[in-house]
Structures are given as C-alpha cells and as structure tokens.
C-alpha cells in the first residue's frame, strides 16, 4: 500500500476493505480522517485514475490547499473550480489540465456550481476526456440528500459516467433516515432495494393523513424498520466514531480553508495596501500600531470591518457557511470566536436553523447568571451549541462536546491553550478534535502559525508583526 502519511489502524483497515470496491459510504465522525481514507483508496488503485470531488462551497478549496498535498504521494494534477473561466490564461490552464494523461487528475468543484450550465459542463467535459478509471466523491454528502433538488439531480446524472463512487459524511443521518435515499442512489441504483423515493419512504417512515380546511396531505410523524435499514447499509458502508479509534491521539488538530468573497478580497487588499504604505512612509513605527492593523485585517477575514467611529459593519463571507457544514454533522459543538461580532453572527445563523433554545453564548455581553445558565444548559443537553469568546477560556467544563471549532483565533497563546482544555478534561470519554477555520496566505494563517510556535503576538517585536502584515 502507498501512503504519504502513516495511517491509523482504522484508516488502513478502511483502505484495504474498499480499495477494490466499486462504491462505498464513509460515515466517519469528524476527526477520524475520512478524507485521508478516500485519497488513499484513490492512490492505491491499480492504475492512474481521474477523480471528481464534489463538496459544499468552500470545502472543495480545502481539498486543494490542505488535504491533497498532505496525503497524496503519487504525481497528481489538480484543478479547483473558482467560477466560470473567463481569462485566456484560465482557459489555457484548464485545457492543459484536460490534456494531462500521464498522472492522476482530480477536479474539485462545489455542488452549488452544478446548478449552473458552466459548472455542469466543466465537469461533463472533464469526464468525457477521461482515459482512466473514473472516481466520483461527494464530500459532506447530505448536500445531495434532497432528491428533488436541482444539484442532487445534476450529481446523479454526472455519476452515470463514473466507475467508482464514494460519499463522505460525519454521520449517516442528520435529520431523517430518508436523507439516505438519494445519497445511496448516487453510489449505485441498486445499493438499496427501492427504485423510488416513495417506496423508500413507505418502508421506513410512519405517515398520517392531515386535513387543513378542504385540503388533506400526508405528514411524517415517525420512523420504522431502522434496524432493517442499518443492515441494508452494512455491505457498502463504514461507520467509525472517535471513541472506537484506540490509536488516535487524545487531541487531533485540523485546518479547513475558507475562501474570501470578492467583497472581502477588495476590502482586505485595500487595508493591506494602506498598511504597506504606512510602512514605507515610516509611520508604522510602534508595536501597538502594527498590532492594531493586524487586528483590523483579521476582522475583515472573519466577516466584519470597524470604521473610525468604532461602528462594526458586516461583510459577506464564507466562514458561516463552512461552520454550518460542520454543525450539520457534529453536535454537540463548542465554537470559540475572537470577537463579539463573530459570536453574534454565529449565534444568529445557528439559531435560525436549529432554534434559539439550541444555542447558548458566553462572552462579555452576558451577566454571570446568564453565563452560568449557558454552561448548565449545554452540559445538561438542553443546548447543542456553545458559542464563546476568551471569556470562556478558563475554568469551564464543557466536556459534553469532543469537537471545538476556532471560528476565529484570539492572538493570545494563553487563551488558545486554556480554551483547548474546556473539552479535554477529566470525564471526557472521547478523543478531542480541534478545527481551525483559516483563510490561506493571510494574517489568519500567520496568527495560527505563531500560536502553534507558542508565540504571543502581543509580546512580539515590531519586525515580527510587520512580517505578518506582509
């Protein structure tokens, strides 16, 4: 077997099981390395392969930036969709990618793009040029759970050209067992013995007839035969939870790359250019001024900007969407934010989808009694999401969760280290996973790098801070 990074036993077992299979469902909890598993399956195929990875918007970039470089040992050509190809150079790059035949090709695209003619035709053109075994991967496969959705129909149509197909998800069922129908249909039309969604629903849903005025309709009130469904999934699925992975380290750290929106790119570039102009003029002469500029740049990356009067203005960003993808398959969840504005944005998004009662906050905006109530509600299972700032970094026990997301990093090393131990405490029975949302090649990444080097930004010398800005 070929591995670039040494696999844990559960990962190696998965590769051996599926390497010669035509399809499979990796229902593996976040932190167990399902992306590495499927990449190892690809690179241990008998020959060169052509692969399409379909993921929710933003996550497909993470494959290009973090996952493929970390885990693929063989020569590989990667093309990451960034929108319709308009420039001459862009067209040349894509043509060169299509003409590659001597090494594995991997096309990465967000599932939403398949709703558009250009996105769909890009994948179709790639598949038509394939000269090797075609693999198709859907990451966070609940994105195709709705059989009526346009993007689901497009994915199913494209999948007809693939030889091997894989779905990746942290949990097989997020809201309803019926979510599984179109995901399994993607893998193979005979993966489940039901030709239609209606037949599948009749087998596993309990329905009743409801009447409103002169109109009557069928409503799902529960589910049935779930043991039978589990047995149907067993031949082609793998379910792994962190608690079952005995060789996993107590703490696992992972980064998810977040792409800037055009508005963020414009504002960030303007702010960075202003900083460099100050540097050239000799105005950026103190550590305090440099640190202030870093904070302003960082705030833009996390989704807002503060004007000279101190008013905060939201900026369209992809960070929330990335977090929501994690939240869909990972609950309970602790989310740490560097800024109160982030706390509010995260709270609003989660509360809108899951209800106010499912989300609690712990920041400088609450009274002590409100904070204590938030911890109690979370630990007792009354809320599944705990959103906090550095105010929650010390002393709290939040070990009901085993996954923590750093939506935005505080630049204090002490805060980072202390916050990690909120879930890694006596009484924690699972391995702990820490996820950093990071915009590559920005101050976002520079801050995380310094924290990993155990450096306090506030105590760094001016030259170090200027290097971060550059």
Can you describe this structure in just a few lines?
With 470 residues, the protein is α/β, with parallel strands linked by helices. The chain has helices spanning 9-18, 34-43, 59-71, 88-98, 117-128, 150-159, 180-187, 197-204, 226-233, 262-281, 287-302, 319-329, 340-354, 368-379, 413-420, 443-452, 462-469, and strands spanning 23-28, 49-55, 76-80, 104-110, 133-139, 164-169, 205-212, 215-223, 237-240, 251-257, 304-306, 312-314, 333-336, 359-362, 385-388, 403-406, 432-438. The protein has two domains: 9-246, 3-Layer(aba) Sandwich (Rossmann fold), CATH 3.40.50.10810; 253-258 and 315-469, Rossmann fold (3-Layer(aba) Sandwich).
Structure write-up:
- The protein has 470 residues and is an alpha/beta fold.
- The chain folds into 2 domains: 9-246, Rossmann fold, CATH 3.40.50.10810; 253-258 and 315-469, Rossmann fold (3-Layer(aba) Sandwich), CATH 3.40.50.
- Helices cover 40% and strands 20% of the residues.
- A hairpin with a 5-residue loop joins strand 11 and strand 12.
- It is globular, with a radius of gyration of 24 Å.
């Amino acid at each position: 077997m070929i591995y670039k990074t040494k696999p844990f036993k559960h990962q190696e077992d998965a590769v051996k099981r599926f390497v010669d299979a035509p399809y499979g469902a990796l229902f593996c909890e976040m932190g167990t390395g399902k992306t590495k598993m499927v990449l190892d399956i690809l690179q241990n195929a008998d020959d060169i392969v052509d692969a399409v990875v379909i993921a929710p918007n933003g996550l497909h970039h993470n494959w290009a930036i973090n996952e493929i470089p970390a885990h693929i040992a063989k020569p590989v050509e990667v093309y990451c969709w960034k929108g319709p190809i308009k420039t001459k150079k862009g067209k040349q790059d894509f043509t060169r990618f299509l003409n590659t035949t001597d090494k594995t090709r991997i096309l990465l695209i967000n599932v939403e793009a398949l709703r558009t003619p250009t996105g769909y035709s890009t994948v179709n053109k790639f598949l038509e040029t394939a000269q090797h075994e075609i693999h198709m991967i859907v990451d966070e496969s609940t994105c195709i759970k709705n059989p009526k959705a346009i993007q689901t129909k497009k994915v199913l149509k494209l999948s007809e050209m693939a030889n091997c197909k894989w779905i990746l998800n942290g949990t097989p069922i997020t809201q309803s067992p019926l979510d599984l129908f179109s995901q399994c249909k993607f893998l193979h039309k005979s993966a489940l013995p039901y030709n239609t969604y209606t037949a599948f629903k009749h087998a596993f849903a309990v329905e009743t007839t409801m009447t409103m005025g002169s109109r009557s309709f069928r409503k799902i009130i529960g589910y049935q035969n779930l043991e039978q469904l589990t047995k149907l999934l067993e031949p082609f699925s793998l379910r792994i939870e962190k608690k079952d992975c005995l060789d996993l380290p107590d703490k696992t750290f992972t980064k998810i790359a977040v792409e800037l929106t055009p508005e963020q790119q414009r504002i960030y570039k303007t702010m960075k250019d202003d900083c460099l102009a100050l540097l050239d003029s000799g105005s950026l002469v103190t550590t305090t001024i440099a640190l202030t500029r870093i904070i302003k740049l960082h705030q833009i990356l996390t989704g807002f900007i503060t004007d000279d009067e101190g008013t905060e203005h939201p900026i369209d960003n992809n960070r929330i969407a990335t977090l929501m993808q994690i939240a869909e398959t990972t609950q309970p969840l602790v989310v740490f934010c560097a800024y109160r504005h982030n706390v509010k944005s995260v709270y609003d998004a989660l509360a809108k989808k899951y209800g106010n009662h499912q989300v609690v906050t712990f920041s400088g905006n609450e009274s002590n009694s409100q904070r204590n109530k938030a911890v109690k509600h979370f630990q007792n299972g009354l809320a599944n999401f705990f959103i906090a700032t550095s105010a929650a970094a010390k002393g709290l026990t939040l070990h009901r969760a085993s996954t923590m997301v750093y939506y935005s990093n505080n630049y204090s090393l002490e805060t980072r280290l202390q916050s990690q131990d909120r879930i890694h405490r006596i009484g924690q029975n699972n391995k702990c996973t820490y996820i950093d949302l990071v915009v590559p090649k920005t101050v976002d990444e520079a801050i995380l790098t310094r924290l990993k080097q155990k450096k306090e930004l506030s105590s760094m010398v001016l030259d170090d801070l200027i290097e971060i800005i550059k």
